[in-house]
Amino acid sequence: MRTFRIASFLWLGVALFGCGRAIEPDDPVKLADVPAPAMEAAKRKLPGITFEDAWREKGQAGAEDAFEIRGRTENGKVRDVKVSASGKILEVD
User: Fold this and answer.
1) Cα–Cα dist 92/90, whole Å
2) CA 70, CA 49: separation in Å to the nearest integer?
3) Tens digits of residue pLDDT in 11-66
4) Who's near 50: CB < 8 A, 6+ residues apart?
5) Domains annotated on the chain, with CATH
6) Cβ neighbours of residue 73 under 8 Å, at least 6 residues apart?
7) Quick check: pTM over 0.85?
């Protein structure tokens, strides 16, 4: 019975939160559609990165949208930067 309870809690955790599943931002966008201040800030923060993908995260309660911009270094390491539409760096991975 105890094993069943533990298995049930594990299943519930996977069902609710996912197991190792990455949570992607809201909407994929083309790099050309990322506002210029956001793209420029990303290039300054991560020089030498070849940016490939971007996602828009809708601002909550009047906040401005943010963009997660992902690219690779010359040796293939993936790097991410989250930038506000006005160019403020919010997060770097």
Assistant:
1) 7
2) 9
3) 555 555 554 444 444 689 999 999 999 999 999 999 999 999 999 998 877 789 99
4) 71, 72
5) 21-92 (3.10.450.360)
6) 48, 49, 79
7) no
